[in-house]
Fold this protein.
Amino acid sequence: MLSTPQPSAEVSPRSIRRFRIRGTIDAASTRSAFEANTGAFIGIPHFVNGEAARALYRELRACDAWGLRICDGERMMGLSPEAYGRASAKERAAFTARAYAAAQSGFAFMREELWPANERAVGPLTRYVGETAEAHTLTTFLSFLRGAVFSTFVSAVFGVRSVMLLRLTVECYRPGHFFAFTKGAPPDARFGFCFDLTPTWISEWGGLLEFCNSCGGLAQTYVPRFNWITLYALSEPRGISLVAPFARGARYSVVGQLADG
Amino acid sequence: MDEGSDDTAVQSDGPLHRAFSSCYHRRTFDLDSSLNVDELKGAFAVRGRILVLRVLEPDSALVLSELLAAESNWGLSLAAGFIGRRFMHTGRSQSALQLREIFEAAYSDCGRSFSHLYETISLATYGNPGARAAAWYAKFLEFINSETFLGFVRTVSGLSDIRSATAVACRYSSGHFYASHVDRNGGKGHRASFVFNLTQFWEPQWGGVLQFKGIKGDVAEAYLPRFNSLSLFVASQPHAVSLVSPYAPHPRLSIGGALVA
């Protein structure tokens, strides 16, 4: 049985028929800005129509299908939403300790992910798209990400003929979660995006999307923002800073990897 | 100062011994001779700040780094909106309960009011004048008030009325941070601030990043605490030190201060 997000009572999922890229966003000027950032990254505020983004945020916030995913540098591990819910404080602490120990000297991460029950391997939401009810805002959004409008826009920004969506994760970073710096990517993926859906956030709370430059310094820091997309080349070292224990909320995002089509 | 017999355990044939010996014979700390002041001046003029890499000649940086790493006279500086600002000596370790209360106090107001949590030592009023470290700190204060350093910062910053410098050592361990603030240590005469970063190895995922705030709470620019770098910035710029992660294996060490007219 597939575990699906439940829309909150605040929004009627059927009222969200489509996501649209905001009309004033111009691919050519965005491409210029991307190139000015050495072809590494570009952040775009107010990316889609606001009511759709708000509906998606509400749906994710109300969702009960979040599982825990960690990487300790050597392998990925996780707890399904059911197991996560049952896990004792001691068991959760053991996962945290494992991720933190790995992050002392290398790559590691810890976060929550939306977790379809029939997940088998990497890229669970690639399967997820076709298996949920059309009315769900998330499904509508994932259809938008797979559609021509998004693909055409993103291709133009990256300066390639076309792109193909390979993998998606819907992520939630709560206090204590992080994603250590990496420039790694599967061999078939060249570009990435992070669509932020965090309505209220300050930089002190962490959860910042950071990019390193070639000298090992920080080239760019993005504070989580609502309805904001960051497009980037997967060759760029990037990470998400630790969400502080005093953060008042969670950082929601939809993250994807794209192939140069 | 007694050459080679410092508080730090220095092997008589090791690089640290040679560094202490080198600084001792020169009777001072020094800037690196390869600094390109014109280039730095141009870079500073753009945003009123700069990160100068390899700022001190290597022996000076090594000596300072080792002094701070061996230091045991730290005091905890805590600021939180509802309790104001407090300073506690940490030579005697606090109980776990006291530490928890300290962290909770610092975290409770972060982002809402002036708040910070880190350890510090005043170099000018070093609490243990008999210790050999005191003599080195006195030498360092002489150095930052010498024409070598003041002339350098005047030229790079264009702030020609800088006349003196004050300094404190800082240690940020896991869980420490300094929320967004503007430096006012020197009152109206406080022209610029500086930080010598003295941690010999630091990964970006460990936090402790010096962040300069942009509009709407964004991070306009961020400096990693790279060994032997100098962060130099106009004092009126809002800035913060991001939370040091629980997986940072060692503290972030620095000497910072005010450049005063």
Remarks:
- The first helix of chain B runs from residue 15 to 26.
- Residues 184 and 230 of chain B are 19 Å apart (CA to CA).
- Residues 1-8 of chain B have pLDDT under 50 and may be disordered.
